[in-house]
Amino acid sequence: MQQKQISNKAINQIFLILLILLIGYSIFKYLLYYLPGFLGAITLYMLFRKMFIKLTAERKLNKSLVSISMIFLAIVFIVLPTWALVNYLVPQATELFQNKDLIMSKYNAVQAYMHKTPILKEIDLSNEALMNFLQELAKYVPSLLNSVAEVLINLVVAFFVLYFMQVNNEKLERSIYGFIPFSEKSKTEIFDEINMMVRSNAIGIPILGLCQGIVAVIGYMIFGVDNPILWGLITGLASIIPVVGTMAVWVPICVVVLATGTVGNGIGLALYCLILVGSIDNVLRFTILKKLGDVHPLITVFGVLLGLNMFGVLGLIFGPLILSSIFVLFKVYNNEFGKSKIILPSDDKLDDQ
């Protein structure tokens, strides 16, 4: 009889777990459109957490007022600069691409230059190849236009969720800590890893892009590139591209400068971008970004590739976090059941080997 009761209890538990998973999947499926908003709220919560606790727990300020103030700060320092950047780039890029004569003259010059260069002449730069490229590019225009509305909606969702996360922060964190079935040491390591990855990517990636963009603008001005501010901003944005990074922008610009007859400027610009624009990535990673969080480059590269496909722009933050969580889970397993020490790629000891 007792065995039968245990069996029925196990069946009921399995049924309950399956029911929870089914309901969770159904909810997730219909709320997938708002997932960037939830991820954005988590990001902002982690970034503002220490400041929020200091103001509310230590100085006893009203939680609602502090949360609204932080949402206002996020709008001023994140949303408005992003809107200003888009508001500048879109008209400039539209005006540039509408000048078909200028584009074709530059393209023909590059085509002739590459045809005369033995190493580059094998690259297909025919008019047919250009048309195919433009057709492929045009496919992304509707999705970009739709993404504007999606971003606005998810911003509202992010601030709405952030408010309730902050106002109920103590209850929220106690619930999450209680739900995780690990020791206090493992829970602390998981939280520290999430906090480090979010701060490293949410703060580090914009800093890296801004610095590379500024250095690129200076170089483009020195060596006579048309629209240096526009191309500098695009170069900074290209820093998020895994592996290739800013080379995706400054290499074609250098080729155009070389093809239009200013060989000295082209060589000088190529050396400038290779030495300064390219190396600033390494300089920042070993100085400012290392203080934010010492994330292994392989986790960053492959995490960004994973995250962009899963979450879009916010995948820059959560892609590396998901990839890093695999190593954290191994470390947690070792804490709970193992005996030997597992060294993560982000550990300092890895650099000494």
TrEMBL record:
Subcellular location field: Membrane
Superkingdom of origin organism: Bacteria
Membrane topology of the entry: Multi-pass membrane protein
Main location: membrane
Keywords for this protein: Membrane, Transmembrane, Transmembrane helix
Residues that span the membrane, as ranges: 12-28, 34-53, 65-86, 144-165, 203-223, 229-257, 308-330
InterPro entries linked to this entry: AI-2E-like
Matches recorded under Pfam families: AI-2E_transport (PF01594)
GO cellular component, one term: membrane
Protein family according to the UniProt entry: Belongs to the autoinducer-2 exporter (AI-2E) (TC 2.A.86) family.
Name listed for the protein in its UniProt record: AI-2E family transporter
Source organism of the structure: Rhinopithecimicrobium faecis
